[in-house]
Design brief:
Strand content: under 5%
CATH architecture of the largest domain: Orthogonal Bundle
Distance between the termini: 41 Å
Structural class: mainly alpha
CATH class of the largest domain: Mainly Alpha
Largest sheet: none
CATH topology of the largest domain: Tetracycline Repressor, domain 2
CATH superfamily of the largest domain: Tetracycline Repressor, domain 2
Shape: globular
Helix content: over 70%
Radius of gyration: 18 Å
Number of helices: 10
Length: 202
């Protein structure tokens, strides 16, 4: 059963909150449809705003950049990733912690179809791939202290080891999502992630 909408503080959402959420969802769905039909680089902000029924000023009030229109702000993915891992008990294995973070990020997609469309655009658009690589490196730096602490507690590992583990987890996510896109969304992306991880860990 769908729960009553809440704000970030846990209070019931106001009419303004619900209106804003509906507006942002409409803009996101419009942008994703146009990106899929025409291509990311070929779709303008003006066209998205016009078809979503809002002004460009309103659109930019909700979304800071065109890239944010692909997924509602990739910075949110990094926050969910770090929050998920930091909240897990210290005894959880580092690989399991990273897997939980990846699963939490994937769960942010509203539907399987939206996830597939977004990954397809990400992997097939050079400008988006470049932006994702930059953000991914930043996410990895943000994860480093969390992973290093977890590994130190387990086996006294040092920074190079922690960096390698984080990089391997992101590489497995890339490999899994690319395979999932190539297979047109068949199967479960987390199963593919697990297969990739098993191959890396030998």
């Amino acid at each position: 059963m769908k729960q009553e909408a809440k704000t970030a503080t846990g209070a019931p959402a106001t009419l303004w909150d619900r209106t804003r959420r509906l507006a942002t969802q409409e803009i996101l769905e419009t942008a994703l449809r146009l990106f899929t039909e025409q291509g990311y680089d070929e779709t303008s902000i003006a066209q998205i705003a016009r078809e979503a029924g809002v002004s460009q000023r309103t659109l930019f009030r909700y979304f800071g950049t065109k890239e944010d229109l692909l997924g509602g702000g990739q910075d949110r993915f990094g926050q969910v990733l770090t929050d998920t891992i930091s909240e897990l008990p210290a005894e959880v294995d580092v690989w399991e912690a990273l897997r939980a973070g990846v699963a939490a990020v994937l769960a942010l997609h509203e539907s399987r179809e939206q996830a597939l469309a977004r990954f397809r655009l990400l992997h097939n658009t050079a400008s988006l791939r470049a932006g994702w690589l930059e953000k991914r490196l930043r996410f990895q730096d943000e994860l480093l202290p969390l992973v290093k602490t977890r590994m130190d507690a387990a086996a006294g590992r040092t920074d190079p080891g922690a960096r390698a583990v984080i990089a391997a987890a992101f590489a497995c996510l890339d490999a899994a999502s690319m395979t999932w896109v190539d297979d047109d969304g068949k199967g479960d992306i987390m199963d593919l992630y697990d297969e990739c991880l098993a191959a890396v860990r030998g």
